[in-house]
Amino acid sequence: MARILVAYASKKGSTTEIAQVIGKELLVNHIVDVEELGAVTSLDGYNAIVIGGPMYMGKMVGDVGKFVRRHYNEMKKLPVAGFIVSLAPVSKDPAQMASAQKALHAALDPLHPVVETIFGGKVDPAKLSRFQNWITKKVKTPVGDFRDWTAIAMWARELPLYLGV
Ligand SMILES: Cc1cc2nc3c(=O)[nH]c(=O)nc-3n(C[C@H](O)[C@H](O)[C@H](O)COP(=O)(O)O)c2cc1C
Predict the structure, then answer these.
(1) Which of 8, 10, 36, 87 to mutate to test ligand 1, by most ligand atoms within 8 A of the CB atom?
(2) Confidence at 103, pLDDT banded by 50, 70, 90
(3) pTM above 0.85, yes or no
């Protein structure tokens, strides 16, 4: 049975829950580990990697790029799927979708994922710092939970096909 690592970054927990749902779906036919990026020391024994994280202030969180640079030699030999969590799907604005896609590509560079997607995220003012609440109000960030669990589960179920595992 193939082993898949779902590695993620998250600041406020919404990406953690997305990664866990992806892992649960993959578990049906695979051995799966769901790990925060910082907890991953080696990619030995994995047949494929799913990597994801949220977008903050126009960029994917820095941990993703750092992880790719640290593990590039191992990752370049494996099929990689990437996802970014952002508010672009909420706005349905093509420019925002393009900017989320660009942020994902920049973080994964020079890796090319075999499949990638953008998921809607969650903004909970109770979890934000004063500064974050100020900035999100100022730029009129939508508040709420915009994660589409059906779309997340469907993407996860199709992953093995793309990853060839
Ligand atoms: C301070 C702040 C800045 C954000 N900046 C962006 C952004 O530039 N683009 C975007 O699409 N979403 C942005 N978001 C939305 C996050 O991507 C979303 O809340 C995501 O679900 C957070 O993931 P996490 O809970 O795993 O940290 C921002 C959210 C906060 C709180």
Answers:
(1) 87
(2) very high
(3) yes
Boundaries of every domain in the chain: 3-163
- Cα separation, 89 vs 54, in Å, equals 13
Q: Return the residue whose CA atom lies nearest to atom 16 of ligand 1.
A: 86
Residues with CB under 6 Å of ligand 1 are 10-15, 54-58, 85-88, 100, 121-123, 128, 132, 135-136
Does the CA dihedral 40-41-47-52 come out positive or negative? positive
- What mean pLDDT, rounded, does the chain reach? 97
Nearest CA to ligand 1 atom 4: 56
CA of 12 to the centre of ligand 1 (A): 9
Exposure string for 21-58, b = 16+ CB within 10 A, e = fewer: bbbebbeeebebebeebeebeebeebbbbbbbbbbbee
- Give the pLDDT score at 135: 96
CATH architecture of 3-163: 3-Layer(aba) Sandwich (3.40)
Contacts of 90 (CB under 8 A, 6+ apart): 120, 142, 146
